[in-house]
Amino acid sequence: MTEATAALLRELASSHRLEEKQYAQLVEGFDQEAAALAARLAVAARRPHYGDKVFIRGLIEIGNVCRNDCLYCGIRRSNQHCSRYRLTEEQILACCREGWALGFRTFVLQGGEGLPAEQACALVRAIKGEFPGCAVTLSLGEYPTEDYRAMREAGADRYLLRHETADREHYQKLHPPELSFDNRMRCLKDLKDLGFQTGCGFMVGSPYQTPKTLGKDLKFVEEFQPAMCGIGPFIPHRDTPFREFPAGSVELTLYLLSLLRLIKPDLLLPATTALGTLQEDGRERGMLSGANVVMPNLSPPDAAEKYTLYDGKLFQGAESARHLEDLRGRMVAIGCQVVVDRGDPAP
């Protein structure tokens, strides 16, 4: 690690902001020593807000039917090998019942794009009606402003919409022409304006990504000030145009988790499934790098098996909510404590 990198890390830890060019320099300066310093600073930054708490969210993959054709995604519209499904409202409520009994107080409904807004609203109302006091997070993609408003009025608390990249040119290389960078940014602004706890995020190591584009991502997070941010390594899927590209780096992802914690010390920051897919102790290492959220999968096993955004996805063992005790044990082993509550952002 150079002295310049160490100085930038300490500056970020104290001021929570840098210039875009400096963020790119931090990415270029990544090595084991820099990552170790960033992780120490990140855990120290997290502690005043959350202590050693790890929040659990119950993830329900409600369907893999998608109208979009993103070049990196295994459930893209043109993938003829994808076995499509959509869970019924009753199946989704059954997943929530199982999670509620296990102590989950946040449910994350994630799915391919194209679910009619009225169906999303009905789901939110049904979950809120049966499980008072729970938080509902939606991750269902892009909608017009009025649809987001209806979801908020139905009771949805949070919305996760990964921006994927804050660089317009890079965005177009990852998506088909009908998807626009400007619309993605409009959606994120709408969600925040409507009072959602809003999450953004990006893949690490996606095709054509550079330190410069990652610098833009970090600056975007600093300026947007999301409640949560989801990042994970890019993992290629065999039935996509990006099948031949290498997977993103676990080590770089962990370093970026630390940088995000330094940018916003009260961020809700998941250690994602993709991290656990590429490395067995990936999520524990995520916590030690500054993360504080894990999202065990409550989906029925046959659905989870079909929701393959990338190859090799974990959907059994500690990834499944049914193995929550194992997850608790793994977190205790690294000095963290899994807590049962909504896990709202620190006040």
From TrEMBL:
GO MF, one example: metal ion binding
InterPro entries tied to this protein: Aldolase_TIM (IPR013785), Elp3/MiaA/NifB-like_rSAM (IPR006638), FeFe-hyd_HydE_rSAM (IPR024021), HydE/PylB-like (IPR034422), rSAM (IPR007197), rSAM_sf (IPR058240)
Domain Radical SAM core, chain residue ranges per copy: 48-272
Domain of life: Bacteria
Cofactor: [4Fe-4S] cluster
SUPFAM superfamilies with a match to the protein in the record: Radical SAM enzymes
Residues reported to bind (3R)-3-methyl-D-ornithine: S139
Keywords: 4Fe-4S, Iron, Iron-sulfur, Metal-binding, S-adenosyl-L-methionine
Annotated protein name in UniProt: [FeFe] hydrogenase H-cluster radical SAM maturase HydE
Gene that encodes it: hydE
